[in-house]
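Regression test case RT-17, inverse folding.

Input:
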């Protein structure tokens, strides 16, 4: 597991550290660096991509961009990018005080364990319209960031791991009792579309006629039931489009990934990061302040702080809902006051 990421001169992240655990919920105002922090994980895992050239440092200077990623073995991977005409990007991997530097060349590939972990990083920001789209059925198919290909992923799960597909159907019915199970249509050769069968009457509802909230919930549930999920996953604002009463189920889906042993799963845990603006979602983590990171932006730039590291945080909470305390501004992580 990654325990911390230090950002130096990466966009709005001038000089700050993000603490991480198996599960981390980042809360903060717009522009406080939540999405930027996740982008840094993506580019660290793909150092040869051309978008490195498009990254602008916080002060638009030629100072190097430095992302330092440390894991629970105290190994640190430094990904450094220098701007300018003769710029070069390179890795510096440090373990037990020994440093090695590698210049990044096009199509060059490294097999360090932490790099392999970073290369698997996926960020999901689901959109109902993309989830509902029919897809071509391919031998190998992955869920896209916006939810495209969900139909293909579910169809593949049914074919390759029917027992797990049935477990997913059972959980779907628990979340949304009006639906019995997932089914598929074949609108044309080599193309499949998603449908849900109703509990009463067994009517098949086409994806384009299913509510956006239901499609979004199905996408989160599917990720939680993938037999071989990515090693690191970020969910951008999982509360979007979801009824507040379903947020507890969304939380449990993310926990299934991060704490598989608590759900009878026999696999390695996934490191899960989520960002939110929802006081309702935040309320669900009142008993786990170590999982909450508050993002703030002030005259000194962006900084991240675990709720459990705030002095006397228990006094703020007491019998008041955590979301209400955060909304009040006492904990920080809210837009600047006018």
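Golden output:
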């Amino acid at each position: 597991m990654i325990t911390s990421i230090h950002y130096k001169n990466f966009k709005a992240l001038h000089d700050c550290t993000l603490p991480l655990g198996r599960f981390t919920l980042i809360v903060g105002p717009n522009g406080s660096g939540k999405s930027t922090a996740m982008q840094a994980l993506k580019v660290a895992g793909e150092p040869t991509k051309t978008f490195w050239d498009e990254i602008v440092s916080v002060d638009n200077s030629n100072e190097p961009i430095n992302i330092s990623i440390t894991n629970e073995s105290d190994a640190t991977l430094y990904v450094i990018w220098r701007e300018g005409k003769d710029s070069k990007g390179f890795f510096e991997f440090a373990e037990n005080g020994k440093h090695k530097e590698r210049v990044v060349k096009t199509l060059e590939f490294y097999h360090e364990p932490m790099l392999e972990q970073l290369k698997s990083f996926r960020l999901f920001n689901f959109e109902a319209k993309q989830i509902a789209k029919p897809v071509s059925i391919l031998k190998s198919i992955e869920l896209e960031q916006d939810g495209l290909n969900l139909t293909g992923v579910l169809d593949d799960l049914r074919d390759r791991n029917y027992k797990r597909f049935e477990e997913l159907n059972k959980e779907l019915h628990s979340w949304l009792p009006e639906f019995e199970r997932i089914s598929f249509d074949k609108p044309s050769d080599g193309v499949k579309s998603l449908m849900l069968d109703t509990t009463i009457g067994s009517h098949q509802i086409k994806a384009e006629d299913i509510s956006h909230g239901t499609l979004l919930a199905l996408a989160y549930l599917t990720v939680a039931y993938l037999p071989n999920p990515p090693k690191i996953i970020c969910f951008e604002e999982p509360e979007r489009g979801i009824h507040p009463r379903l947020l507890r189920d969304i939380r449990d889906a993310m926990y299934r990934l991060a704490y598989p042993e608590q759900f009878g799963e026999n696999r390695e845990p996934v490191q899960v990061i989520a960002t939110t603006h929802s006081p309702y979602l935040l309320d669900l983590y009142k008993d786990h302040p170590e999982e909450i990171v508050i993002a703030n932006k002030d005259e000194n730039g962006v900084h991240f702080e675990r709720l459990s590291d705030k002095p006397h945080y228990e006094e703020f909470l007491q019998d008041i809902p955590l979301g209400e305390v955060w909304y009040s501004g006492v904990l920080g992580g809210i837009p600047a006051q006018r």
